[in-house]
Amino acid sequence: MWGSAVTAYLHYLGFMLAFGALVVESLTLKKDLSLQEAWRVVTADTIYGLSATMVLITGILRVLYFGKGTDYYLSSPVFYTKVGIFIGVSLLSLYPTVSFVSWVKGLRDSKLPDLELPQIQRLSWLIRGELVGFALIPLFAAILARGIRLF
C-alpha cells in the first residue's frame, strides 16, 4: 500500500511541478530578459524536464504495479489518447529546451541571449501548447479512472 501511495504522490507532484515550471517559463519569457530572468527560464525548464521524467517513470510504475492492471489500461483508447498527449507535449518541449540549453554558456559569462521577436513568439506558442496539453492530461486520467469510453 505504501508503494502505491508514494508512487501516486510522486506522480501528482511531478505533474504539478511540470505545469508550474511551464507557467514560470511562459510568464518570464520576453524579448529583453535580464540575466536573472534568463536564468529563471533555464532553471524552470530544468525543473520541467526532471518533473516530466518523474511523471513518466511513476506513470509506468502505476500502470505496471500500482494501478488497475495493464489489461485495463492497454485495452482503453482513452489511455492511448492520454499517453499520446504526453508524447505530443514532450515533442513540443524539444525546441524550447534546446533553445534554453544553448543560453547556458553565455549566461555563465553574464552574456544575455540575443532573442528576436519571432523566436520569442515561437517559444511562447510552444510553451502555451505544452500547457494546454498538460491541462488535458488530468481530464483524460479522470475519464480513464472511471472507465468512461469515449471512442
TrEMBL record:
Keywords: Membrane, Transmembrane, Transmembrane helix. It comes from the Bacteria. The chain crosses the membrane at residues 6-27, 47-65, 85-104, 125-148. InterPro entries: DUF2214_membrane. It holds the Pfam family DUF2214. This is Membrane protein.
